[in-house]
Amino acid sequence: MTATITIRPVRPDELTTLWQRGFSDANAEWTKWNGPYFHDQLPTQTDFETIIGPRDWLIQPRNWVIARDDEIVGSVNRHFVDGDLQRWLEVGIIIYDQQHWGEHIGRKALTQWIDDLFKDGTDLPHIGLTTWSGNKRMMHLASAIGLQQEARIPQVRYWQGRYYDSVKYGILRSDWLAQKH
Fold first, then answer.
1. Predicted pLDDT of residue 54
2. pLDDT (0 to 100) of residue 147
3. Distance in angstroms (rounded) separating the CA atoms of residues 169 and 12
4. Is residue 99 within a helix (H) or strand (E), and if so which, with residue range?
5. Residues of the chain with pLDDT under 50
6. How far does CA 67 lie from the centroid of its chain?
7. E strand or H helix that includes residue 19
8. Per-residue pLDDT, 57
9. Where are the domains of the chain?
10. What is residue 45's three-state secondary structure?
11. Residue 83 CB: number of other CB atoms within 10 A?
12. When you count CB atoms within 10 A of the terminal residue's CB, does the N or C end of the chain come out lower?
């Protein structure tokens, strides 16, 4: 039986589950691929308890969960590169547990996310995704769903003693809507 993959806003009663699956392990494998050169720190349990008080970080239209048969396995997000101007939108995706990597969950979820954004989330003509040349899975995912490599900035991401390229993908609304998913 094929798993059902959905994306949706996180429900308030799922915040603890989201924390446990996605953020409780500071050494989770996904953190080694999600822009590790930034050296971001995951929120601690105390941070999380502070965050879920106002709930403004997790329960927002810019952050949705990915569910596999209604079990949270990851998240999709969006952000504006140009801040308050809100004319340059990029998306991201995380599958928290590597046991789910290779199941095409990311492909289904990111396709749904971009569909949703172009349908109801924005009237912008373009959506982008930025990754790094060390993340071959993300590069493959972007190409597999129809995003085009639009830029490659050589050797600007430094990680574990080596330089990597920043790689930008994107697609125009008209091209996305013309694709058959």
1. 46
2. 98
3. 33
4. none
5. 54-55
6. 13
7. none
8. 53
9. 5-178
10. helix
11. 9
12. N
